[in-house]
Amino acid sequence: MCNGMYFPILPIYDSKNIKNAYIYPISARGVVTNPYIDDFIESMGTYLNFVNKDKPSITGIFDLLKYLFETDYIFLNWIEDIPDRKNGLAQTIFLLILLSTANCLKKRIIWTMHNKISHSYSHLLWKKVIFKTLLKRSDRIITHSCEGVQYVENILRGSRQKIIYLPHPVKNRINKNNIEKKFDILIWGKICPYKGIVEFLEYLYKNNYQNKYRILVIGIATSKSYFDSLLQYSNQNIIIKDDYLSDAYLQSIISQSRVVLFTYFKSSILSSGALMDSLGFGGKIVGPNVGAFADLAKEGLIRTFNNFDDIIPILNDELDNEYGSSNKLELFLRDNSWDKYAEKLTKLIAP
Fold first, then answer.
1. Of 27, 162, 143, 152, residue with least CA distance to 82
2. Which fold has domain 19-169+336-348?
3. Domain regions of the chain by residue span
4. Buried residues in 177-216 as b, exposed as e (16+ CB within 10 A)
């Protein structure tokens, strides 16, 4: 595994003096919650008091002003996407001021770097400014992939001492029942351009593979135009659905699928919640050779590809070899639970 820097074990947990923390984002917009944030709060709640728990914001990062003087830790996730939000420029300026003054205010900034850069290239200049400021001003940078450690060091020399590498935590939800397989390939999650789904389906048609596999593409589309561009590739063997996936629904379709395929582009991805959910449900996974996918491939838990030409022989091999969950997977799920993650992280973010 990679050698992200580890720190002295100085516990921040004291039952008589639990410190306060603020976490971003908790948004009141829409009805779909972020499972990563929910799981993070639940697991870390043993060690920290999240002052904005169950208090969704309608003002973005400005919401922090209500809690700033009672907060010790500020946890930031996907914060580089702020320029795309309502009043994005004003939020961006406030964020940059906050990052520049946090040390004087005695606030510890803990940034989880989920991606190399925002998946959306709109307002890219501001996003790069935020990204580089986070690298300089964060007290700790959490990454869920080995590549993230080296990526940060390449951008900002000497920053390795503040980087924490921990695999993305995962829940063990394997269904060990023998379920009939309805699909050869499942592609699931938010349906958007950076995931390369259109390009993969186009590749299948160009190489006359469009009827070779039973494929289900399912998730919430980020735009009607992008979803329409997918629909042109649907046929009797390729089913494409714009649909919300509850945990129960997801468990069901992963159990009915022989392979879970991720066709993500490599340019921005470092880690993936969908990857870890698929692993936790016991799916056989094929994904790009990048970030957390590459880490899991080195552990022998998934298969990876470098380009679409690699995918077909890998898929054929996986489809020809049926097997259940391995002992290696069971150990990984045990050692990387949310509770274990919270215990480790609590020690590593201490001053």
1. 27
2. Rossmann fold (3.40.50)
3. 19-169+336-348, 183-333
4. eeeeeebbbbbbbebbbbbbbbebbbbbeeeebbebbbbb
What type of residue is 202? E
Q: What is the pTM of this model?
A: 0.90
Q: Strand 183-188 relative to strand 215-219: parallel, antiparallel, unpaired?
A: parallel
Q: Which CATH architecture has domain 183-333?
A: 3-Layer(aba) Sandwich (3.40)
C-alpha 109/C-alpha 90 separation (Å) is 20
What digits encode the pLDDT tens for the residues 231-251? 999 999 999 999 999 999 999
Residue type, 120: S
Structure confidence by residue, pLDDT tens digits, 8-37 = 334 444 555 789 999 999 976 544 568 999
Alpha helix (H) ranges present in the chain?
Answer: 35-44, 88-101, 124-137, 146-155, 197-206, 224-231, 247-255, 273-280, 291-298, 308-320, 327-335, 338-348
CA dihedral of 295, 299, 302, 308, whole degrees rounded to 10: 50
Report H helices in 102-223. Answer: 124-137, 146-155, 197-206
Instruction: Write the secondary structure of 47-102 as one string of H (helix), E (strand) and C (coil).
Output: CEEECCCCCCECCHHHHHHHCHHHCCEEEEECHHHHHHCCCHHHHHHHHHHHHHHC
For residue 283, give every residue at least 6 positions away whose Cβ sits within 8 Å of its Cβ, in sequence order, or none: 186, 254, 257, 259, 260
Would 19-169+336-348 and 183-333 be classified into the same CATH topology?
yes
